Amino acid sequence: MLANLLVGLATMVLCLIMQALLVSLAVRFYARRKHLVVGGSFAATMFLLCAVMLLLVLGNALQIGIWAGVFMLLEEFNTFSVAVYHSAVNFATLGYGDIVMSEQHRLLGPLEAVNGVLMIGVSTAVVMWALQDAMQGAVAEQN
């Protein structure tokens, strides 16, 4: 159990680093194109918000891949596609239960779910920040 906890925590730290890098990239991307919001069209604003969201979703998808890779290294699954599916179910906290890990590594599922909740929450916060900033820019432009 301790080994699984250490593997899970190390994977969570790796995912946090990746998420932080993509959040930084998304915020810079938004900041460099903020002029599209202030004085820009609705379509330009939507493009910018969608691009920020897609960068963050890409980060979540990469984290699912990292967890799937860990599952493959632990020889939990025979194919990467099954490992990715199981990882996505855990990360999104769906909990279908149609594919279950061995008792030896079962603790990693809940750890990935905690990781997913946190990282999806971070993504949501950044998208909400960009949306609020865009709305404030639009309102300021009207005044």
TrEMBL record:
<keyword id="KW-1133">Transmembrane helix</keyword>
<feature type="transmembrane region" description="Helical">
    <location>
        <begin position="42"/>
        <end position="70"/>
    </location>
</feature>
<feature type="transmembrane region" description="Helical">
    <location>
        <begin position="6"/>
        <end position="30"/>
    </location>
</feature>
<dbReference type="Pfam" id="PF07885">
    <property type="entry name" value="Ion_trans_2"/>
</dbReference>
<keyword id="KW-0472">Membrane</keyword>
<dbReference type="GO" id="GO:0034220">
    <property type="term" value="P:monoatomic ion transmembrane transport"/>
</dbReference>
<keyword id="KW-0406">Ion transport</keyword>
<keyword id="KW-0813">Transport</keyword>
<keyword id="KW-0407">Ion channel</keyword>
<dbReference type="InterPro" id="IPR013099">
    <property type="entry name" value="K_chnl_dom"/>
</dbReference>
<feature type="transmembrane region" description="Helical">
    <location>
        <begin position="113"/>
        <end position="131"/>
    </location>
</feature>
<keyword id="KW-0812">Transmembrane</keyword>
<protein>
    <submittedName>
        <fullName>Two pore domain potassium channel family protein</fullName>
    </submittedName>
</protein>
<feature type="domain" description="Potassium channel">
    <location>
        <begin position="66"/>
        <end position="130"/>
    </location>
</feature>
